[in-house]
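Q: I have two molecules that I believe assemble together. Could you output structure tokens for the complex as a whole instead of separate predictions?
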Amino acid sequence: MKSPLQSAIKNLWLSKWSTLMAIVSIGVCFFIVTAVLIGLYNLDIFSKKLSSKATIVIYIKNEIPETEIYQFINKLKETGFFTKIQYISKEDALKEMQNIIEPSMIELIGYNPLSNTVEAFIKDEKIEKIEEITQNIKKSDLVEDVYYPSKIIYALKTLKITLWNLGIIIFCFLSLAILFIIYATVKNHYWKKTEEIEILKLLGATPSYIRYPFITEGGILGLLGSLLATVSIVIIYFFLHSKNVIEFLPAITQLVFPFEILYILPCIGLLLGVASSFVALGKIKYQ
Amino acid sequence: MISFLGVYKYYDSTPVLQNISFKIEKGELIFITGPSGAGKTTLLRLIFGSERPDEGEIRVGDFELSKIRQSEIPYLRRFVTFVFQDFRLRQDLTVYENVALPLFILGQKEKDIKQKVYDTLKNIGLRHRADSLVRTLSGGEQQRVAIARAVITNPRIILADEPTGNLDPDTSKEVMTLFRNVNAMGCTVVIATHNPELFQNTPYRVILLKEGKILQ
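A: Yes, here they are, computed for all two components at once.
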């Protein structure tokens, strides 16, 4: 007589082609889901890197003395919105400008046309509030004008939201597909064993005794499918990081691979397998 | 051990059993007889928890079958076992595996199971066929395997529905001897049959059913 694990393996082996098809289909779904999630993860990192460069440039009115400007900077620091705040006096700005533009051109103007400025580097988590922060800064009497890269921030925000929503849709759709494949496979095996199960019920088998082999079967399908996807992803990762590919696509080295998926993915596969087979079996009735 | 009190059972508003009341004492061997369609099988199915009465009360041991929950039925079926006319054996398993199945369900140890199964097979004269596939056995042998499977867990009650229906007269006698032996060990045995030869000239009680009613 066989244990639930042995029975499950025997059942899967008896219909090996449908089992193989199910595992490959589950593997493909997991592969796509994981690839999308890795893509989104990298996009998130990329957008964070970009947004950390988002700076608010504050132009200070000419007549404001430096002591007041420093008081203003301290107030900005207290808000906790910024990673770094630096003051650039109009004289320093002019010196920097002379490195870019021909000094004789500046001499033609006859005076320093630049303003004292404060550059505030906004914190990553506050990037969504950049517009609100800018409006508040504008309200200050010291401030002549404020500039921030609104179009870039907006484009980045839109891209991020769109891709995340798309990712969530793909994730939900393919997770449902995985659940359905396991559900259909286990249900099919259950129907094939109807007579056997009826005999077990007549002999006093409890619902859990009847369910165990099928739930194990679902777990095995989910686990093997997810392992197939994990192995494929690892192989692709090493392929992409091989010398030849890096020479051809140097940006590949910037790709971050979350190694946690090596154990998270099989766990999810196992859980999905167990859950969908449990649903497939439904309530075991005796009357 | 078993009591029926004013039991009614309908299939699509057609009465199959009407006002059935009787008691079966512990350790009794009893026959339920009557023509086809009299309600014998339905009566056994009610005792086994496969059907629920529409009216009345049925008690089997401590189980109140008119109120029994689905989750209690497996435990009822360890208390009451059933021998079917068509045996209901796993044709893909050996004699040993079929007889051992209820013990595996109970979660007993492999070593204990082996001992019990071989002892039981010896008692029914099938020790030498232990490793044979059930499908290679004759009808009489299969019925003996079914009886062995029913008695292996030492149930309090054994129900048998036309246990000799598919057997020749000599094999039927052998099977009835097995039931008498099981009963002699203290097990209550309820046999549904339409064959009067099984209970004529025997000391056992007989319930006669006709059109769902007890005549005698």
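A: One point stands out. Chain B has a mean pLDDT of 89.
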